[in-house]
Design a protein that fits this description.
The chain has about 350 residues and is α/β, with parallel strands linked by helices. The strands form two sheets. A seven-stranded parallel sheet has the order 3-2-1-4-5-6-7, with helices on both faces. Strands 10-9-8-11-12-13 form a six-stranded parallel sheet, sandwiched between helices. α1 crosses α17 and α3 crosses α4. The protein starts with a strand and ends with a helix. It binds uridine-diphosphate-N-acetylglucosamine.
Length: about 350
């Protein structure tokens, strides 16, 4: 079998979780060059994931940092292009829907380097989300589309994309299964002062919520009306805006809300496995709640992970106080929990799809 050279481009927190098992599977038979765009850079947003998930140290860090969409994406592209030109890899592997995904996909496609997209075909059908623009563009310039779910394959078909499409399952499940076996939650629960089954775990970071004073107010009001304590891991974007809108004191004064800095992967797994439910606007965490069998209320009007809603594990409540309170208070654990995200071996399926498509098996 020919050894492939793959350049993987990551940059934001969820991409580290997705890349961990793929790096492992890829490096068993091929050569990988790992590039970190630097989109996320704080220790608790980046390094802690590399350490805990055993991800190899990036070969390159572009250190782009924060900025507007155009600046962030634009600054990454020439650096990525130069690297792709120099290495001429068999493919560039990009993950999910962030500005890093867009920069990697566009820079490669425009110089004729094949693009492989992990988490292809996801759609929220809400074009006000920057992530929706990123994923649509990247899917349309990708050669290998690595889909997590049947719904994502159907979304691509509806847009006329059928070549190079592989249903591989969800790579976040690979990571979740691995850690579920190895993590003892008790230390984290003690550290955060919460009791198993008697708290909600919450995160809020989508621009649509985190940048809106009225939506943040409605969410805080909902959290404050819940009967169980809410442990809220606050993303830096959200923290900055809570401060800007004068809402931080309100959160800190609320006795049943415990706001903490962003948590590590092991802490996330521990909290998800132990919470009564999750309140979030994160995409990945809606699925992780499903993996660990806890119900979720999604603080958005739509989701890419439609299976979780169809199966009764997830309810959409927007940033509407009454709907959030009602959905959280009525949370229950459905009887059915089918393997809609595959068998936890998506990373191997991704490598074999790359081998098939890029001729590595010849
Ligand atoms: C990005 C992704 C989003 C993903 C999320 C995961 C885009 C358009 N959005 O959103 O899809 O779900 O990552 O977290 O790519 N900041 C820090 N330290 C950091 C990183 C960010 O303080 O290490 C702050 C900065 O103020 C920055 C803000 O957070 O401006 C937003 O960061 P950015 O990477 O632009 O977007 P996210 O909201 O993290």
């Amino acid at each position: 079998m020919r050894r492939l050279t793959i350049i993987s481009v990551v940059g934001a927190r969820p991409q580290f979780i997705k890349a961990a098992p793929v790096c492992r599977a890829l490096r068993a038979a091929h050569d990988e060059v790992l590039v970190h765009s630097g989109q996320h850079y704080d220790y608790e947003m980046s390094d802690v994931f590399f350490d805990q998930l055993g991800i190899p140290k990036p070969d390159y860090n572009l250190a782009v940092g924060s900025g507007s969409h155009a600046r962030q994406t634009g600054e990454m592209m020439p650096m990525l292009e130069a690297l792709f030109e120099e290495k001429r890899p068999d493919a560039v592997l990009v993950y999910g829907d962030t500005n890093t995904t867009l920069a990697g996909g566009l820079a490669a496609a425009k110089i004729g380097v094949p693009v492989a997209h992990v988490e292809a075909g996801l759609r929220s059908f809400n074009r006000t989300m920057p992530e929706e623009i990123n994923r649509i563009v990247v899917d349309h310039v990708s050669d290998v589309l690595l889909c997590p779910t049947r719904a994502s394959v159907a979304n691509l078909r509806a847009e006329g994309i059928t070549n190079g499409v592989h249903l591989v399952g969800d790579v976040m499940l690979d990571t979740a299964r691995f850690f579920a076996e190895h993590v003892d939650a008790s230390e984290t629960l003690d550290a955060f002062g919460v009791v198993e089954g008697e708290f909600f775990f919450a995160t809020v970071h989508r621009a649509g919520n985190a940048d809106s004073e009225s939506r943040l107010k409605a969410i805080i009001e909902a959290f404050s009306r819940l009967e169980l304590p809410v442990l809220w891991a606050v993303h830096p974007r959200t923290h900055a805006n809570l401060e800007r809108f004068g809402l931080l004191e309100r959160v800190e004064a609320q006795s049943n809300i415990k706001a903490v800095p962003p948590v590590s992967y092991i802490e996330t797994v521990s909290l998800l496995r132990s919470a009564a439910g999750l309140l979030t606007d994160s995409g990945g965490m809606q699925k992780e709640a499903y993996f660990f069998g806890i119900p979720c209320v999604t603080l958005r009007e739509e989701t890419e992970w439609v299976e979780t809603v169809e199966l009764g594990w997830n309810r959409l409540a927007g940033a509407d106080t009454a709907r959030i309170v009602e959905a959280a208070s009525a949370m229950s654990v459905p009887a059915q929990h089918p393997d809609v995200y595959g068998d936890g071996r998506a990373a191997e399926a991704i490598v074999s799809a790359l081998e098939t498509h890029l001729g590595g098996n010849r």
